[in-house]
Amino acid sequence: MSDQTDARPAPEQVTAFQSDFELVRREIAKAVVGHREIVDGVVICLFAGGHALLEGVPGLGKTLLVRSLSEALQLQFNRIQFTPDLMPADVTGTTIVIEGDTGRDFQFRKGPIFSQIVLADEINRATPKTQSSLLEAMQERSVTVGGTTHQLERPFFVMATQNPIEQEGTYPLPEAQLDRFFFKLEVGYSTREELAEILDRTTTGYQAQINPVLDGERIKAHQATVRSVGIEEKIQDFAVRMVLATHPEGQFAPPIVNRFLRFGASPRAAQTLVLGGKVMAMLDGRNHVSTDDIKAIALPALRHRCLLNFEGEAEGISTDEVVTNIVDTLPA
Question: I need a surface site. Which of 31, 127, 189, 331 has the fewest CB within 10 A?
């Protein structure tokens, strides 16, 4: 395997990427207080061409963040509120019969998935059948209804939210669905200062004016630039070994993995580490990936792709602890 050194991004492309990333970050900050890591994680997913899963208790601003991002981008936006009675056709669309002068005609009516930014709100409240209607759209960027495949307009970006504490009336996402999310971002509580700022904004008549700063063509150009960032063979091998380290009884698995994990990450995790690392490199002004770039996004890239065994659940171990151990102990 040769090092990917040809056609690396020019310095002006890297600078333009940094500038546009900061523009989007600044517009979102007009509405969202704090959560810098979460905001960055969502925008990284966008520029890497992946999808984001946001998990956190109600009221932390997950939906506001997604709405703010959609307002900062000149893209079509749809929100789908997932509920137990939501049907797959309510997401993808359905074929309807229209009575005309020449008789009956069948016409496909598009569902809300036909948008460029889709907010799947409280995705774990829908049944597995409805959740699976997102699978093809997220992976293939297309929807098949009645034997006909309909392409989705690019860039296509799904952001899903879920509540981790209300188990009654929820359906946990299966591993195949989780694996299709580029990052899983855990939204935590705000600090004392951030809560004060939230009150100042929400109880005084403050209205955030978010301006659209990027369009679809610009985003697609940045996505193409990200993929041209160079990565040396030894750095790529570091990402590969990090994924293999999540496999119990594997060659690179540390003791904590052998003890507490049932299954490890899939090849998609390696793709995520490399693409996410390329975005991190450009944010740092470089056109090549380092091991620190891979380490920086290991948690959101791997935490939802590792499955604890019975002992891990009984001991109260989190997948974050396992991934952090891998990052700390894996030789560079």
Answer: 331
